[in-house]
Amino acid sequence: MKLSKVDLSFQSCTSEYEDANVVIFSVPMDATTSFRPGTRFAGNFIRLDSIGTEWYSPYRDMDLKDYKTCDAGDLDLPIGHVENALEVVYQATKTILKDNKKPMMIGGEHLVTYPVLKAVHEKYPDLHVIHLDAHTDLREEFFGRTLSHATFMYHAHKFLGDNHIFQFGIRSGHKTEFEWATKHIYQRKFDFEGLDKVVEQLKDKPVYITIDLDVLDPGVFPGTGTPEPGGMQFKDLLWAFDQFEKLNNIVGADIVELAPHLDPSGASTQAAVKALREMVLLLHKDEK
Question: What global pTM score does this model have?
Answer without folding.
Answer: 0.96
